[in-house]
Amino acid sequence: MRELNVEALARVEGDGGITVTLEGKKVKSVTLDVHEGPRLIEQLVRGMTPADDLNVIPRICAICTLSHRYAAIRGLEKALGVVPPEKAQLTRDLMMLGENVESNSLHTFMLALPDFLGYPSAIAMLADYGEDVKRALRLKKFGNHIMAVTSGRIVHGENPIIGGFGKYPTKKALDEIKAKSKELIPDAIRDVELFASLKYPTYSEAEMVFMSVNAPNKQYGFAGDTILISNGKETSAEDYKTLTNERVVTHSFAKRSLFQDKPFTVGANARMVNMARRLDGQAADLFEKYYDETWLRNPLKNNLAQAIEMLWSLEHIPEACRHAASLDDPPIAKPTRENGSGTGAVEAPRGTLYHHYEIKNGVIDVADIITPTAQNLDDIERHMKLCAENMLAEDKKDEEVRLGLEMVARAYDPCISCATHLVTLKRI
Amino acid sequence: MHKLRDAPGDAEEDLRRQIEDLAGDGRLYVLGLGNTDRADDGAGILVALALKKRFPSFSYSEHDGVEGTVLDISEKEEDATVLFVDASNMGLEPGSIKFIPKDEIKETEITTHRVAVALMASILEKSGKKAAVIGIQPETIEFRGRVSKPVRASVQKVVDALLRLMMRIDR
Where do the DSSP E strands lie in B102-154? Predict the structure, then answer.
């Protein structure tokens, strides 16, 4: 018997690892062991006012800071009976587009691409793919810029609030973003072509169930009040518990999710599968060109989905800017009640994120947060198990199996990828 | 590992000489890294913010966006050196300052939260620029803790050394 270990795995700024126990070529078990102590944020915000909650909640993640903030705002606004003005909605859409460009560019190029091209890291890749790395950094910088303009700063911006924005971006700032976005579209197209040209290993393939928000007005997007499931069903976000069924496991501080007792996937590939017909522009053309049925089985295709999604985001930023700039800055919408409950569902770059709140007498009584990674962990384990089994059946070398496992983990989520850089093989 | 002498002024003098050897007469950019919520971990940010008052176009902090700043500098048509200033656990006395040449930069891990300094330095080098790290040994990185006395003194030493160099180049 032997073990394949993925050391130093982090879920969200975390500490953990993956252990694959093997008996000959048979995989006995796969455990994704998250060692990071629980941060108890849901308990921490109990008794806080909704405004104070917004100062704490985004600290869960410094890369998805705006997704957490936005999910919290959506949940809190529902609970408090707040209807945000149109300009607030447009500006929120813009900030999510920016975060998507920022995160997808970083993940695809810096974390995922070196594996496909056979380099140990983006640093090693620089000599041969210097222009590609710089192109990714240009996109990341632009995403960061949009996040800073809309939220007030690059990380943990305080500007988006319940009922609107403390300060709306100026017309000049929006015009600059609009122009820059158009300028970067050819870069994003090159990225899609690059990711479409990669060879995607098939070892981890298996039928998948995908979940994502159902963006309003039959459009592609990053927020919604209902959840689409790739089996054709649709469920209110308020019923998120029936979808996620969170549970604890003994080997991990991270909670797990199962839908109808089976693992499922959230993320860019889930959004593409569930909302593909809503894509437009060149993103739609390229999706049409490169989509095939392996998207429904191969988690690695998430990288290609992220590249196409980044293009879609860039194509939609100009319109969001134009529309927002055409409207006067509205007053902040006020709460209409002090008691209520609500669930905010948004698409963080790595998948559906839920923030549920119950408010009593103006303070938070219950907070429940379900992150994309908590939903993906079981499916990561499932695909890693398949990957190990299939590679070992072909007598692949340990080094190759290690890379295969890392690629599956990285494909899912940069919060995991950041610490799954090292896989060690332990023989017993 | 080089151990800095304790006599007042030595740290700045050593640092200045090493930077001058690397940068020559070229333009100097400072990029302060770290987390000011964690006591001494914010040393690099404090250096950058102090220099920003006098050199707003040549001193940046992590709050300005690391990758974007590096990318912009890499595309400039000038002889330039970027100095990343960061709290670094080097096993030295708290407040020790160390000049770390590009090839000795150990931080190579790219995460969702930060692109590695080594990658940034490599991008700069590929663009004909030079890069190095100025490390300051922290005493404490306690969350919401205060910057320790030795690190506060070292931040000032680094600021003084860089100010003198940048003012000379600015002339």
Answer: 130-136
Q: Which helix (H) or strand (E) holds B99?
A: strand B97-101
The residue extents of the domains of chain B are: 10-170
The DSSP 8-state label assigned to residue A265 in this structure reads B
- Looking at the DSSP assignment, which residues form a beta bridge with residue A351? A348
Q: What is the pTM of this model?
A: 0.88
Q: Which residues contact A58 (CB under 8 A, 6 or more apart)?
A: A65, A66, A68, A69, A72, A156
User: A123–B112: do the CB atoms touch at under 8 Å?
Assistant: no
In the predicted model, is pLDDT for residue A35 greater than 90? no
Domains of chain A with CATH codes: 2-427 (1.10.645.10)
Token digits of residue A90: 């447009």
Among B residues 89-148, those touching chain A with beta carbons less than 8 Å apart: 108-113, 115-116, 118-119, 122-123, 126
Domain B10-170 matching CATH 3.40.50.1450: the answer reads yes
User: Rounded to whole angstroms, what are the CA distances from A212 to A22, A122, A189, B9, B69?
Assistant: 34, 30, 24, 60, 35
Given phi > 0 = left and psi -120 to 50 = alpha, else beta, which region is B31?
Answer: beta
Please state the ipTM of this predicted complex: 0.80
Give yes or no for A138 touching B (CB within 8 A).
yes
Mutate to test the interface with B, among A63, A141, A144 (most CBs of B within 10 A): A141
CA angle A139-A145-A149, nearest 5°?
150
| A46-55 tens-digit pLDDT | 999 999 999 8
Q: Which residue of A has its CA nearest to B117?
A: A123
Instruction: Give start and end residues of each alpha helix (H) in A57-121.
Output: 65-80, 86-105, 113-117
Which one-letter amino acid corresponds to residue A139?
L
